User: Which sequence fits this backbone?
C-alpha cells in the first residue's frame, strides 16, 4: 500500500466515524435524550344546549404536551387524537440503521453500499427538509466524504 491510498482510506474511516458519532447524537436527540422533540396543543369543547336550541354553553379545554421518540416505548400519552411519538421513533430507527450500515460499509471499504446509504440519506434529507431531514444532513455529508474517498483513485 502506498501513502496516498493509505491516506484516502484513513479519510474514509475518519468520515465514517464522524458520521456515526453525529448520527448517534441525532438518534439520541430524536429519542428525547436532550429534551422533547415535538409539542402539541389539543382543543376540546364541552357543554350543553338549551331545549329550544338558541342558547349554547360550551367550556373550552386546552391541553398541551411535548413528546419524543422514546414515548412509544414508555407508553406515555400524547394528544387525544394521536401524536408524533411513533413517527419520531420510526425515523430515529431509520437514522440509526442508515448510519450504522453506512459507517460499517465505509470502514470496511465497501464503496457501493456506502454510496447507497448516501443516496438514501440525501433522499430523506431533501424530502424532509422542513422536519426530519435536518437530523440526516450531517451524517449524510460525512458518509458522502467517505464514499468519495473510497471512490477516488490515488495519484502516484
Assistant:
Amino acid at each position: 500500500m502506498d501513502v496516498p491510498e493509505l491516506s484516502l482510506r484513513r479519510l474514509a474511516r475518519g468520515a465514517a466515524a464522524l458520521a456515526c458519532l453525529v448520527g448517534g447524537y441525532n438518534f439520541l436527540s430524536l429519542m428525547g435524550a436532550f429534551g422533547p422533540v415535538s409539542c402539541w396543543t389539543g382543543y376540546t369543547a364541552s357543554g350543553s344546549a338549551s331545549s329550544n336550541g338558541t342558547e349554547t354553553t360550551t367550556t373550552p379545554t386546552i391541553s398541551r404536551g411535548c413528546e419524543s421518540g422514546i414515548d412509544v416505548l414508555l407508553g406515555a400519552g400524547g394528544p387525544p387524537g394521536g401524536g408524533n411519538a411513533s413517527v419520531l421513533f420510526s425515523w430515529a430507527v431509520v437514522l440509526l440503521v442508515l448510519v450504522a450500515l453506512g459507517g460499517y460499509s465505509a470502514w470496511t471499504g465497501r464503496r457501493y453500499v456506502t454510496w447507497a446509504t448516501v443516496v438514501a440519506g440525501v433522499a430523506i434529507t431533501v424530502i424532509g427538509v422542513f422536519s426530519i431531514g435536518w437530523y440526516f444532513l450531517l451524517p449524510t455529508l460525512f458518509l458522502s466524504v467517505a464514499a468519495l474517498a473510497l471512490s477516488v483513485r490515488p495519484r502516484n
The chain has a mean pLDDT of 84. Residues 3-31 form the longest helix (29 residues). Strands lie at 38-49, 56-67.
